[in-house]
Amino acid sequence: MTDLRHYDVIVSPAITEKSTTASEHNQVVFNVTRKASKPEIKAAVEALFGVKVTAVNTLLRKGKMKRFRGTVGRQSDVKKAIVTLADGHSIDVATGL
Questions:
Q1: Which of 24, 81, 33, 86 is nearest to 57 (CA)?
Q2: DSSP letter string over 2-56?
């Protein structure tokens, strides 16, 4: 039985061109909550997907200023986690949970 807190840690997979090229090196990129720590991210990925994680790298992308119909707004900050999987393990992010 997976802990329900694991679903709160991982927000969504990040599907970008850069994350697609990282998948060739056994890495998967996820958008995570701002308060999530590396051990929490590792435990959530291992519990939800049933894989072995060797490393977790995180980065915080600051929100950009955007203009929409003359009104200036600010996008929110996004924390991303680059999860390196052990050899022989893989996650298909296209199928979802």
A1: 81
A2: --THHHHHEEEE--SHHHHHHGGGTEEEEEE-TT--HHHHHHHHHHHH---EEEE
Distance CA 23, CA 89 (A): 11
In terms of DSSP bridges, do strands 78-85 and 53-61 run parallel, antiparallel, or are they unpaired? antiparallel
What per-residue confidence (pLDDT) applies to 42?
93
Residue type at 92 in one-letter notation: D
- Low-confidence stretches of the chain (pLDDT < 50) are none
9-18 long-range CB contacts below 8 Å, 24 or more apart?
A: 9/33, 9/36, 9/40, 9/41, 9/44, 10/41, 10/44, 10/45, 10/48, 13/93, 14/80, 15/93
Q: Is the pTM of this model over 0.90?
A: no
- Please state, in angstroms and rounded to a whole number, the distance separating the CA atoms of residues 53 and 43: 9
